[in-house]
Amino acid sequence: xxxxxxxxxxxxxxxxxxxxxxxxxxxxxxxxxxxxxxxxxxxxxxxxxxxxxxxxxxxxxxxxxxxxxxxxxxxxxxxxxxxxxxxxxxxxxxxxxxxxxxxxxxxxxxxxxxxxxxxxxxxxxxxxxxxxxxxxxxxxxxxxxxxxxxxxxxxxxxxxxxxxxxxxxxxxxxxxxxxxxxx
Length: 183
What we know:
This protein is α+β, with helices and mostly antiparallel strands. The protein has four helices and ten strands; from the N terminus they run βαβαβαβββββββα. Strands 1, 2, 3, 5, 6, 7, 8 and 9 form an eight-stranded antiparallel β-sheet that branches. The chain has a two-stranded antiparallel ribbon with strand order 4-10.
C-alpha cells in the first residue's frame, strides 16, 4: 500500500496522479481519517489464520469475491464510471486485494484527494461516511474480497450526501481527532 495527495489533473483516472514533487501520506495519517490497513498473504486467503482473526475481531461475517476485468465484469466501463463517482456508504467498506492492483481515493479533513494504491495482499477499511471513489490502475485488473458486517449493503450515496447520519458521525469523529491529535 502506498498513498499520496493527488494532483489536479483530470486525465485518465487509471494513472497515478502523483504531485510533483510527490506528497506521500503515511498509514498513520490514513488512520486519523478512519482508514485502516493490513498486509496479508493473499496466496493463503482461504485458510489464513490472520485474516480469520481480523474477520472475527471486526465482525466481518459475510464475504464474496469480485474480479474486475473487462472480460469478467459485465458492463465493465459503465461500472468503472459508477465506482469513480464520489460517494459514501452508510457502512464501512472493506476490501482485500487477492490479485492485481487498484486505487481508492479518499477525501482528507481539508477535502483534498488522497490516492491509496492497493496491490495483492492489501486489506483496507474505509469508514462509513467518508467520501471516496474507486478505480483501476493501468493494468485494468483486480480480484478482491468484499467483506461486510452482516448482510451486504451495496447502496452508495453520491456527493453531496452530508445529511446522512453516517456522514455526520464521520465528520464529528474527524473533528475529535483534530482536537485531540489521535485517532
